[in-house]
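Hey, weird one. I pasted the Ligand-gated channel protein sequence into the form twice and got a warning about non-standard characters only the second time. First submission, copied straight from the form history:
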Amino acid sequence: MTHSFQLSALACACLATLSFSNAWAQNAAPGVPSEIVITGNPLGRDSTTVPVSTLGRADLLERGQSTLGETLSGLPGVSSTYFGPSASRPIIRGLDGDRIRVLNNSASSLDASALSYDHAVPLDVLSTDRIEVLRGPAALLYGGSAVGGVVNVIDNRIPRAPISGVLGRAQLQAGTGNDERSVAGLVEAGNERFALHLDGFDRRTGDVRVPVSLDCTKPGSPANARRICNSASTARGGALGASTFWDHGFLGASVNSYQSDYGTVAEDQVTIGMKTTRYALEGQVRQLPGWFESVKARLSHTDYQHTEFEGTQAGTVFANKGQDLRIEARHRPLAGWQGVVGVQTESSRFSAVGDEAFAPFSRTRSQALFVHEELPTAWGQVTAGARWESVRVESLGNPELDRFDEGIGAKKFTPFSVAAGAVFKLSPTWSFTGNAAVTQRAPKDYELFANGPHLATHAWEIGNKDLGLEKSKSLDGGLAWKSGPNRMVVTAFASQFANYIGLMNTGDYRDEEGKPVGPEGAGDEGVLPLQLYQGVRAKFQGLEVNGRQRLWQKASTLDLDWRADTVRATNSSTGEPLPRISPMRVGATLVHSHGPWSAKLGADWHAAQKRVPDGSRSTVAYTLVNASVSYRQKLDTTVLQWFARLDNLTDQLAYSASSILTSTAFGKSPLPGRSFKLGVQASF
């Protein structure tokens, strides 16, 4: 009750500030242009010292997949969890789960995707304008859960700048590899004072084609076919948003829904029905009097639920409801320093009802203070930031399962994180960046209180209520060169964890009721290995390189894009490798442009991953070849963007080293085979 009151009070204070500033701004001079949103730079500049990748509309049109993880996989340092074609979360520099912060318009995306590999992220690229990916712990402005990086999915469901007249976009696409049929559209209308946004999408896919025949026991499906059994899916959603503007700010609101039904692929007859509804309120005022130039605030409420069905019968139901409030105030320069200070508060209530509820009901509350500062210099720029959090994680047990009774209680944590970075302009074409961070993360509810069968990991998981803060120290350094169309970026990184919280094998086994089973029962139906959440010492180190070289420039251009990355992760307490680490990857793409035409031909080689811990399966090397062509056509006030893409041109059989399915259900879900996709996007 106290926390709800605090959240409401902060929200009211935020809105009161915006209302007061609205009245004050009506008599002020004309406003300034809207800021560019850069996740790693809250000051709104188009540069940042931390490693960042951005995918705009054209990139998403070309490489967009049905999941966030697969859409981003292949970016420098980014792989995916790949629990089949319908559930995939980003992995950044070998870190996944709650070490990667997934945001929606810089606000928390409250769901259960980090809880389990088979839980999808309730976001679709069909309704997205841009995705920004920050690599490394310098993204601590967004919490200890951002130690690996941040993925910010940005849309315009709350218009942040005036819209003149009526604008729109529609997209149609179809694919052969999964029999995809997708449609999406949006309409925006407004004037200098008001703006309205409306969008919707519908994506339907069948079982995914692969280069090898697989068995299937799902009723209505072939017993043996070159498809991933139970991989069909449907996803649909939409949003309505509106904003009002004054000379120096705006205030807007939106409501959006997302629904998805998909197979879990690890089990032939288990499907998931997911639904989430999100309400958001956002505003900003600029050119304030006094110490602060501007104030920005975001408030959201999310209601998430998904049900696991065994055939047609509903099984375990997972739900998560929560609120997130974030307020940022940009201060005027102080001794040359420019920056923002802010507060953030989050509250979520999780529940799992059913036989496969491996975590109890829980409530998590957190409050945070943060600061981000920048000092422009003659030779570059210096940045510094800090974040203090107060986190309370409480187990509420489960009225249907008494095995959680012993874990009932609350744990309190006070993580504190600091980071600093700098960019040095060595010459007009060369620059060097460096970042250092000391980060702390509070354990999640399931890491503290889990006790049950988790079929996604094929284990009986036990939490550890004695866990302390996860602590890490990290460094990264980058060298960048740019001359005309040519560019190159090389980044090296290293992270040392004093208390890396991971799910570790114990060598023991449990049956379906949680009773101990001897080693002789390993492999029997219903017997699962016992795994315990523990804190260990760990280290991550790696290298990321990418660039572009102009090969030809006449009436047309020919460029070579190239990329490579590698990461090495070790459990320092045992000397064993950490599991699900992507191997070395090397790729190159030829890009030809001629007027409205563009064509690409590329290949990505993935090395064999033999450096795996006991209980994990190694993977062999493979190469994926891809090609695409696009054509931009202008018809009066409408622009048509036609595109065609051919993925896995050679129909290569491959298994993901970063997917848990490779170890727990090998052969059930290889990477997709050859697929041809054709589509068009119309903008007016």
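That's the output from the first submission. The warning seems to come from a hidden character in my clipboard, not from the data itself. DSSP finds five helices and 35 strands in the chain.
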